[in-house]
Amino acid sequence: MVAHSKDLPQQINAVLDAVHTKKSARARPLPAVALVSFIAVVIGRYLSNKQAKAKKAAAASKVSTEGTSSSSSNVKEGKVVAPKKTSKPIKHTTPETFARNRKYFPPSKVASAGSSASSAKSSVKVGVNKEFFRQIESIFKILIPRLHCKETMILVLHTTFLVLRTYLSVVVARLDGAIVKDLIRYLQSKLSIAFRTRLTRYVHDLYLNDQVTYYRALNLDDRIEGVDQYITTDVAKFCDSLAGLYSNLGKPILDTIIFNYQLMRSIGVSGMGGLFVSYVVTAFLLRMVTPAFGKLAAVEAKLEASSFHSSHFRGDFRSAHTRLITNAEEVAFYNGADLEHSILTRTYKRLIRHINSIYKIRIAYNMFEDFIIKYCWSAVGLTLCALPVFFPALGGVDSVKDIASGDKVVGARTKGFITSKRLMMSLADAGGRMMYSYKEMSELAGSTLRVYNLISVLHQLQAGEFEGPAPKTAAAGSSASSQDGDAEAEFYSMADIRGVMNYGYEGIKFVGVPIVTPSPGNANGGEELVRNLNVDVKPGDHMLVTGPNGVGKTGFARLVSGLWPVFRGEVSRPSPKDIFYIPQRAYLSIGSLRDQVIYPHSHADMIKAGRTEEELMTILKHVHLAYIPDREGGWDTVKEWKDVFSGGEKQRMNMARLFYHKPKFAILDECTSAVSSDVEGLMYNHAKDEGITLITISHRPALFKYHLHLLKLTGDHGHWEFSTIGTAEERQSVENEIKSLQAKLDEVEDLKKRHAEIQKELEVGLNAGPQDGTKVQKRGLF
Fold it and tell me: What is the three-state SS of 615-651?
């Protein structure tokens, strides 16, 4: 009892010290919580102010730059009023930035293989490797172009809260950083949106520009299938995965460093050595059995963009639905619902078949991964934690201090074991999350590859660099004569473009230019439609381009506009503002009725140019559409105009755009086929009165009288004929056609007389018909 009474004061003091320690432990998180709350309030206040400013700017910008706002506030009594100031305009990517970044996006093996080399694509390994990190580094130069930018600020805040969450997890076990976790999720979403906004803006500036990269990507190159899928889905998926990976991988790494340090103080260097060996063995085993998640993710994304193909058809699940919506009327006329249903079913089944295969692979891998991380790691960890219990010499600094401080040996060892066990559990959790993050990184590699290929190919197309089969050796002088059909056909490859396009010429001039259909991915090269075309159209020399179907008439317009490459020779044309094109299919944009007339100008461009709605009404009168504004509800009416206008109205609306812009030259490609001949003539004469030189692509002889020259594409080995309408030869041709028509008219009277004779004969035969009372219906011959 005496001994016990001597120990009593020490026990009381120990209890008091423990109570004091608990009180101080409870008080410790208060400064941290206060700091987090203060930061949250500041950030929330900043974001709410920013959102309020954005709403205010949106309310003040009702005069839309897209031309859908009311004109009454801008045009009063014929006077032009300056538009209100709107929010800060978007700063587009400069050509210097494109030129600086293009070197970081050389063609990858997948992109350079093209769609015709599927085996080359399948041989490319997609995963977390050197190429993956190089691609990520290249894309990061777009995501974070400089140190002082919005993305850097969000990233710093994100990192700060990741550190705070780890700190709170260590200090306050009950709180577990719940507040900071919510802030991290918010900042992760903001970081993803910031990445996506900057990357999408960069891609849009690269995709939509004066070099018509969008047209080249769709028609002149086959390395990107489904560009819309890349821009809308893959970019978003990449940014979400990248922002999520930073959160999911950043905190576990920080936890691993902290917990390893704390554990080393408990189990010593020897225990940490064994733990490190377990890390290496685990990583090796998981890497050996890890499926190619990056490749699987890339294939899944590709199936979304190209999930069905056969020898006659190639498409994707989304575009199959889009195609059905676009061509619903034609499919209904043909009663093609069954076939379209089978196409949709096949595209969906192929996609689902691949997704199910991924699930089967994942379940086996996840079971093995969970077994290794949750059971093997725990067994190894507990074994290492028990080392200081049985071998005190192997313990860490904290174990030695506990024994040296006078604590009982058994109590000290038990305390060290429990502490090490808890640290080991936290470390196992952090390690497990790191392993899961590695799997996410492997899947990110697939998205990274697709986004990198998109940017790389767009950079090349924007610079006019194409890929195609190697040029074949052709006979010398094979294109020396435009009229020699016996010359060997020259090989035209997208990788061998030698022609020249000159701008600023007062006219349209072709010198030794072949019209060639580009065929990306075709080993035989492009098809030559017209051989060595030489023509010079001066202002006022209205020219009609005619010929059978498929001989290159529309190709003439595509060459002048720069849509098709000039493989050989030299093309000279006016500046872009002095020439206007009206294609075969009438295009009606999204927007108001006013936007349909002034396209591609916006309402703001119209006001800046000093144009008024009275002018627009005058233009509609010239194309016989003056009734449209009243019928549709005014200039500001917004509808799906392609479903509102008839075929003739669509074509006349496109002619109205021509009269609005008043270019020096206009290329009209079968743009009045649905318009009556009298209105067509009035529009052609008005265009000539406006001083517009017309180049019409048509095969209708009725348009001859509105032109001075005729370019006839024969389709016979690329031959062509150029003549002046009204020459002796042309007059002789017209006179022959008149004589032929007159001869047919002279026969009309004879045919009428013969018709009357036959009618009389039939009537006599019917009257002398059956005498048994059978009724016979009298019917004329015509």
Answer: HHHHHHHHCCCCCHHHHHCCCCCECCHHHHCCHHHHH
Q: Is the N-terminal amide bond of 600 cis, ω within 30° of 0?
A: yes
- Could you give the CA distance from residue 155 to residue 152 in angstroms, rounded to a whole number? 5
- DSSP letter string over 665-704? EEEEESTTTTS-HHHHHHHHHHHHHTTPEEEEE---GGGG
| Half-sphere exposure in the Cβ direction for 484 (13 Å, CA) | 10
Q: What DSSP character marks residue 393?
A: G
The pTM is what? 0.67
Cα–Cα distances (Å) from 190 to 47, 152, 159, 182, in that order, read: 11, 12, 13, 12
Written as one string, the DSSP assignment of 309-374 is E-SS-EE-HHHHHHHHHHTHHHHHHHT-HHHHHHHHHHHHHHHHHHHHHHHHHHHHHHHHHHIIII
Cα–chain center distance at 7: 79
687-693 contact pairs (CB < 8 A, 24+): 687/655, 687/658, 687/659, 688/542, 690/659, 690/662, 691/662, 691/664, 692/658, 692/662, 692/663, 692/664, 692/665, 692/666, 693/537, 693/538, 693/539, 693/540, 693/541, 693/542, 693/664, 693/665, 693/666
SS3 of residue 448 by DSSP? helix
Distance CA 703, CA 697 (A): 10
Q: In angstroms, rounded to a whole number, what is the distance separating the alpha carbons of residues 143 and 149? A: 10
Q: Give the residue, 419 or 20, on which the prediction is more confident.
A: 419
165 vs 476: CA distance, rounded Å:
74
Query: Token pair for residue 391?
Result: 């071998």
What DSSP string describes 702-768? GGGGG-SEEEEE--STT-EEEEETTSHHHHHHHHHHHHHHHHHHHHHHHHHHHHHHHHHHHHHHHHT
- Strands 693-697 and 543-546 turn out to be parallel
pLDDT in tens, 201-253: 999 999 998 888 899 988 888 888 888 888 988 899 899 988 888 878 877 88
β-strands 665-669, 693-697: how paired? Answer: parallel
